[in-house]
Every structure is written in structure tokens, then in C-alpha cells.
Amino acid sequence: MNGAAALDRIRIVLTRTSHPGNIGAAARAMKTMGLGHLVLVRPESFPDPVADARASGAIDVLEHARVVGSLEEALHGTVLACALTARRRELATPARWAHEAAIEAAATTAAGEVALVFGNETSGLSNEELALCQVPVMVPANPAYSSLNLGAAVQLMCYELRMAAIAPGEAPYQSGQPASFDEVEGFFGHLEQAMIGSGFHDPANPRRLMARIRRMFGRIRLEREEVGILRGLLAALERKT
Fold first, then answer.
1. What is the DSSP string of 14-66?
2. Residue 172 has what pLDDT?
3. Average pLDDT for residues 78-104, to the nearest whole number?
């Protein structure tokens, strides 16, 4: 897949953005690097003339932006979601540096659509939002002052994605088709209900069980056929109870 085609399969997702100027700055950053798919999760103000002004010549990116009500909706149909975070999180899968995450993301576009997720300017991504993404991504910034402006963070990652698309690396999936976001979430939902039905899992006293299970499977990166096997196994076990 050529560089332009790879970039066309990448969506930039901004969640709960509080300042419309940052949406415009993100759109401008995207267009300069050849990306055009912007998804906004519950923005505080959009459309907004401040966003238009900050976008400069990237008004078309704003005009085609999708506004959705949840991160789950924003990730629908993706095969990989990378989430920018400024700090390491307990029970999250191991973080990747921005450069190597961009290489993997660009390569994975050969299998389907990829998302790069950015959180709120003040609080970043919640633990629940981060858990929906397979790859936490960190920028190797000055540890004494690692906070990046949202527009700058989008610009940095779009640059890394463009460089990775121009000189693509080896695709991380060789043996099978990666499971989509919807297929993986369907598996987690099925697994949780099976654990509740068996008495193994008490949702009133969860002890962060599902977070630990998500981290475990996140390290594996499930393929579509593997999800089918696991759900078939769960269904067979449910019939025995």
C-alpha cells in the first residue's frame, strides 16, 4: 500500500476537547501531513468560528469531521487504536514510544483502519478510554516537563505517521486478519457474561478483573480467527452449565 493510501486509512480521534481552537489546530496539523479523517467525541464546542480560524487552510478537514457520542463509536470498524498518554498507567498494556507506534500503525493499515486517540486537554484520556485502545503511546519528552499542547501532539504524531507511511515497515500481522475493535469488544462482553454466569466473577466486587483481562489479551493482539475460537469455546462451556 502506498503512503497516501495508508494515511487515508488513519483516523485522528479527539475526545472531550474543551477548546475549539485546539480542534482547528489539529485539523491544520493533519492536513500538512496528508491526513484527512477527524473524529470528535463529545467536543465542548463544535462547529465553532475559533476552530475555523485556527484551521487556516484546513477548513475541509473540519467540514468532513464526524462528531460522535462515545469513544466506542469513534473506534467502530478499526483494527488498531493507539492512545496518546503522558503517563504510565496501572493495568495498561506496555506503552510504545511515538516513533515505533507510528511504524506499527502505518503498517497495520494494510489490514484495515487505524485510529490515533487524543484525550482532553486538561485530564487526558480516562483509564476507561485507554482500556479501549490496544497501544498506549508516549512521547519521549523532557521528564521534568512532559506536557504537550494538544495541537503540538497531533502535529508530532501526524509527522511520525507520514514518515512511517512513506517508508513503511513490515506489517505486524502475517498469519491472519487482526480482529476489529467491534469483534474484540464483543468477545470481552461475552467473556464477562460467561464469568458472571459461572459465578467466577461478581460485578458488585470486581477487583479490577476485567481491566486485568484486557491487559492480558492486549499483549497478545487477537486475530479474527482467534476471537472466533474463544467465543466458540465460551458458547460450548455455557451449554454445559
1. EES---HHHHHHHHHHHHHTT--EEEEES-SS-S-HHHHHHHTT-HHHHHT-E
2. 54
3. 88
